[in-house]
Amino acid sequence: MEILVPVIIVAAIGLVCGVMLSLASHFLAVKTDERVEKVREVLPGANCGACGYTGCDGYAAAIAAGEAELTQCAPGGAETAKAIGEIMGADVGDVRKKYAVVMCSGNRDVTENKFDYHGLNSCAAAALVASGPASCRYGCMGLGDCAAVCQNDAIAVVNGVAVVDKELCGGCGKCVTACPKQVIRVIDADSRAVVTCKNADKGAETRKVCKTGCIGCMKCQKVCEYGAVTVTNFVAAVDNDKCVGCGKCEEACPQHIIKVMQ
Questions:
Q1: Mean pLDDT of the chain
Q2: Would you say domain 191-262 falls under CATH 3.20.20.10?
């Protein structure tokens, strides 16, 4: 009995505690929205942050709470948006595929570095030294920070300049964030033309650092019949909502930095 009584007491206490915990878990449980898990399952799992949230979990929770658009997952594209729409009971409409483009044509054939850089093989590190070794202060430094963060292996550095394979690119925008010079943009896949230069210096200054930089000559703007091309601060830009892809601006550009997309 001396052994049995303590055992019974301990067992009784354990039983009471178990019942109390069971009741607490039932009445104090935080209700979860089952749609969060369903949305999470259809997301690609890239956790790229392109949606503006802390990975796929954060985006799924924001969708279920009605705080996020259903079409913000760039890597997932139209297929993922449609699946989310079915879960949420909403029509997402047309979803445009996106991909990144490098707004620089200053490869090693047309530019020269202003000094030899021997530090860390990183654009972010090189940019801390006199704004980087590239002769053009707006240009790609070609050390591959963008390629390093690309989960789709869509970016390669070719002849000193980053190049994007649009067929592999998911449009997540990680490369945009990684580039200290901000020479990468994410555009709609149906964009008709793009200016591959960001140099906003006067033409004479641009020529000193890059043979193919935009010189702000305005020839592209003058030949565009649709008002799609404008030159601001000595650099051209294309409004793809107005552009019809005729190619006249590409033909008129003496620097050959306007590209009509195929």
A1: 90
A2: no
CATH fold of 97-189: Alpha-Beta Plaits (3.30.70)
Structure tokens at 225: 């019949």
pLDDT digits (tens, 9 = 90+) for 95-121: 778 899 999 999 999 999 999 999 999
240 pLDDT band, cuts 50/70/90, is very high
Name, of 26-30, 183-187, 188-192, the range with top average pLDDT.
183-187
**pLDDT higher than threshold 90 for residue 192:** yes
3-class state of residue 96 by DSSP: coil
Domain range annotation of the chain? 34-88, 97-189, 191-262
**Mean local confidence (pLDDT), 131-160:** 95
CB distance 105 to 196 below 8 Å: yes
The CA radius of gyration of the chain, in Å to the nearest whole number, is: 27
d(CA 201, CA 216): 9
**Cβ proximity of 197 and 184 under 8 Å:** no
Whole-Å CA distances, 25 to 13, 20, 140, 169: 18, 9, 56, 46
Whether the CB-CB separation of 94 and 201 falls below 8 Å is answered with: no
Q: Match domain 34-88 to its CATH number in 1.10.238.10, 1.10.260.40, 1.10.15.40, 1.10.3720.10.
A: 1.10.15.40
Which of 86, 55, 51 is closest to 69 using CA atoms? 51
Task: Put residue 49 in one of left, alpha, beta given phi > 0 → left and psi -120 to 50 → alpha.
Answer: left
- Report the DSSP beta bridge partners of residue 194: 259
Q: How do residues 36-62 score in pLDDT, each as one tens digit?
A: 999 999 998 888 877 888 889 999 999
